[in-house]
Amino acid sequence: MKIVIALGGNALGSSVAEQKGNATLTAKKIVEIIKQGHDVIISHGNGPQVGLINLAFSEGKKVNPKVEDMPFSECGAMSQGYIGYHLQNAISNELALNNINKKVVTLITQVEVAKDDPAFLDPTKPIGSFYSKEEALKLGYPVKEDAGRGYRRVIASPKPVKIIESEQIASLVNAGFIVIACGGGGIPVISSDGKLSGIDAVIDKDFASSKLADQIDADCLLILTAVDNALINFGMPNEQKLVKATVDEMEKYNLEGHFKAGSMKPKVEASIDFAKGGKSRIAIITSIEKASEALQGLSGTTIRL
Ligand code: ADP
Ligand code: MG
Q: Domains of the chain, with CATH numbers?
């Protein structure tokens, strides 16, 4: 199968050392999947990394006037390189250990969003440093109070419309390469008069991975996160694992409010969007530990039309 694997935050961690260590563990799981004979395209989140990169510039500017604030699309591009490096390095090492003659490539990926996406009118995603109210109001950006901890800049999280480099990704996969792409949900760009340009936004990585899987006509969208299954009645005494579900069943559970916004809900909606595209498609939500079992139908939550 051609599989788009979306890695969650726990596959990477946040500090450099933690990310290197986690990438090594993640690479072992990815190589298990490759050993089963699948072609893989790997996407990943970048929340902590993009926040740190942005913070480094805004703090750096205080001690060196040559340093300027780094726009979020550039921070996203830097995070794709930084995380891509660790994953590319770890997967290559693991392939060599297993005597598998396959090569890995990381592709900087732009993702188009709509200029008039309603998310731009109501930015909700808190990012970067905390400020006092007075400091925050001087920033010139939209800010919101974040859970009693201070004020933070908020940016929009628009829906991905199109993965710009999907043809390059598909060609690399067809040529036998393992591709790391669409990191952090992709670099957000808008199109004006036929030109693409970066915009301050963060695209949800689950939605972007689903769009990528659709555009390259993958067979499977495998969303790897901190839990083995999507649950209904999450956190309640009657919580229940979902093992096999249809798109209609998942839509019903979603409307009933079983999946939390900002965590499980985007995964479920991304899975539904992908699985809706054809009867042969399968979306799976599970943990990294259970990934290869889930592909054999032995674990995880599997969603089909
Ligand atoms: P990732 O970094 O992989 O995107 P998130 O933290 O965004 O991870 O989402 C995964 C989390 O979603 C789980 O760790 C769990 O705490 C939470 N969650 C919310 N609702 C559910 C649910 N209905 N079933 C399972 N997990 C849920
Ligand atoms: Mg998430």
A: 2-297 (3.40.1160.10)
> Is residue 49 within 8 Å of 23, Cβ to Cβ?
no
> Of the residues 227, 250, 268, which should be mutated to test ligand 1's pocket, given the most ligand atoms within 8 Å of the CB?
227
pLDDT value at residue 180: 98
Active site (annotated) includes residue 10: yes
Average pLDDT, the chain: 95
pLDDT for position 7:
98
Who lines ligand 1 at CB under 6 A? Answer: 8-9, 45, 225-227, 230-231, 234, 258-260, 263-264
Longest dimension (CA), the chain: 58
DSSP per residue, 164-223: TTHHHHHHHHHTT-EEEESGGG-EEEEEETTEEEE-S----HHHHHHHHHHHTT-SEEEE
Query: Which atom from ligand 1 is nearest to the alpha carbon of 231?
Result: 24
Is 6:223 a contact under the CB 8 Å cutoff?
Answer: yes
- Å from CA of 134 to ligand 2 middle: 31
The model's pLDDT over 197-221, given as tens digits with 9 standing for 90+, comes to 999 999 999 999 999 999 999 999 9
Q: Give pLDDT tens digits for 223-246.
A: 999 999 999 999 999 999 999 999
DSSP 3-state of 53: helix
pLDDT band, very low/low/confident/very high, at 138 (cuts 50, 70, 90): confident
